[in-house]
Structure formats: structure tokens, C-alpha cells
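Two records follow; treat each independently.
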Amino acid sequence: MHDDAAALTAAARERDTDTAERLLAAGAPADEAIHGIRVPYDELADRALAFAPGHAGRFAAAAALADRVDDETFAVAARQLATAPDAGRRRFAAEVLLVYGLYAEGVEDAERLEKAAGEVLLRRAAVEQDPGVLTEIVCGLGLHHDPRAVPAILRHARNPEPDVRAQVAAALTGMVAPDDTEALGTLLALVEDRDPRVRRCAAATLADLRADPPAVRAALAGLLADPDPDVAVEGARGLGLRDDPRGDTVLVRAFDSRPPDSTPEAHRTYEAIRRMPMARFLAARAALAAPGTPGTLGT
């Protein structure tokens, strides 16, 4: 196992992704919790940087560090995020910090370090320019769910990179207070973004919003005609959660199109479908089954 870990690190440093993929599939690197191997931060960072953001190999390295929940690892990640000249190193540090202490159970310092990680992300959000690093920082601000971070999140809503704007929309989930007109206005603008990824994230956040002013209902209804079907479903879901029947056919179509072996309760439309009176559900299903109706179950 030590040999595999060394080979993985070497492959990562040489950006030999094929070899790194093969080693990961074979079980490298060793799990610290099982094998008691404490891999140095820089070595795990080297491994992670062999993979594109979002890859399982990168996540495994970040998770191994985040799971330590100790001052030593926190200090290295915080320093790297603040001072590393390489944007890739800063992004990996943000990946470590974005969940630092959040899911630790029974760890004495977890709450203190979670709060400290949120403070580091908040400070860096004000000065970071690289869009990849910003994406992770904004994600972390949303996950840490500190209302003080909302202005810092909103500051990046007009970033030219769609990944950043999409993350802004996602990070606002559960963070928009009913009386926060700036945050609500930002979200309403993001559901009209030119990039479908941004609209999807904004539509999902808007659907789950606690506030229910006419502008929100109008925006959700407008999403039903969005060319991206995922955006349309989120609009219908938001209407369904507000007992508004305008999205019923979109909701039922999405619910009935789920994989046959899937769990109904796990489908994203389930809560809205569950609230729908049976008469409305059956009427929507009948409308979808009508011959000649474009895009319905009957065609």
C-alpha cells in the first residue's frame, strides 16, 4: 500500500492522469482512518492536482485532509488559500476548507475550526480573482451557511464566468431572508441568465425560497417555457410547493419519466407531487396522455 501511495504521488506530480486513474481504481491512496497513514498536506495536494476539479480523486484528497479537523491541517490550508501563487493550489485549499469541521461528529474542536474556516473563506472572497478558486470559495460560503456571507456571495453575481454565477445562485439556497430585496433581486436576475447552468441553479434556489411575493410566482411561471427542461421542472416544482397548479403537467411529466427502478421519494419533484390533490394529478396525467399533444406521454 505504501508503494501504491508513492506511485500515485509520482504520477500526480508528472500529471500522468492515466496512471493515477489506474492506481485509484486499485485502491490507492490508503485510507488514513483504516491504515493510520498520515499523508502530508503537500503530497495530497500534488495528488489532487493531477485531476480536474470535480474528479473523485481530487475529492478523496480534499476529504482526507478535511476529515482531520485539526489546527495543523487548517493552518496549512488557510495559508495556501491566502498566499499560494498558483491558482490550482489555492483552489485545492478552498476545497479542503469549504467543508472543514462541518460534518465532524464528536470532535472537540470541530465547531471552532468550522467557524474559522468560514472566516478564512469570507476574507478571501473579497480579494480572490481566479474564477476557479472563487467558485470553491462561494460554494464554501453557502455550505457554512453564515448569513454574514450573503453580501460577499452577491458581490460575485455578475462575474463573467458562468461557473461562478451558477455557484452564487446555488450558495444562496436557504440564505435569502424574506425582506432581503437585494438578494431576491439578484436571484430573479440569475434565473434569466444566458447560461443554462446558471438558470438551473437559480431556479432550484428560487423554488425553495421561503418568500412568496408575486415577483417570485411570476418568475417561476415564466420558467415553465424555458428551453432547458431542467429549468422548467424547477419552475414547476416551485409552483407546486406553493400549491399553484400552473406547473402541474410539467411536474407530472418529470415524475412519470423517472427511471422505473428509482425510489419515488428521491425524485426532486416528489414533495410538490405529494402536495398535489389527486384530482389535479390525474387531470395532468390525462392531459399528457392526450394524442397529438407535443412533448407529452401520448406522443
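The next record belongs to a different protein.
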Amino acid sequence: MKVIIPTALRKHTDGQNHLSVTATTVEDALNQVVTAHPELRSSLFDDANQLVSFVNVFVNDRNIRDLENEATPLNETDEILLVPAIAGG
């Protein structure tokens, strides 16, 4: 499956706009992503290894908070999209 990396986080993935993983849950997929690109960990997880509240994770256009959070099951054809909150003024 594909994990789509937004522009704001690509500096942590050597400019890659997506990563390929093989996972059965969102948690497994995100763990694979941060294992491959450790610089992403602080952008996705807090010190307690919980997904930070200012990053939304979507599986096929559905927010995982409306599904089963990190336990959301995945299929081989699913796409995961990471969407960090953007602040400005």
C-alpha cells in the first residue's frame, strides 16, 4: 500500500512524495514509515508514542478517528494520507 507524504513532511523522507509499505493496520504502517525515516517520528508521535493530535491520518479519504484509529485494518490497495495541521496568520 501507499503512504502519501505531504510537502511539509517530505524533508524527512528525502523528498519522496509517497512510501510503499506492507501492513495490516495503520499503526503497523506508521511504524514502518518512522522506522525507514526516523526523522518523521517527532512529526507524527509524541513522547508517549501516541499519534499527535495535529496530524490527521486518512485511509482512502476517511479519517482514522472516524474508523478504528491506529487499529484501523488495511488492505493491500489502501492509500494512507498524512495531513499535518498548518498554522498561519
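Discussion point: The helical segments are 26-36, 41-44. How would you locate this feature using only the C-alpha cell line?
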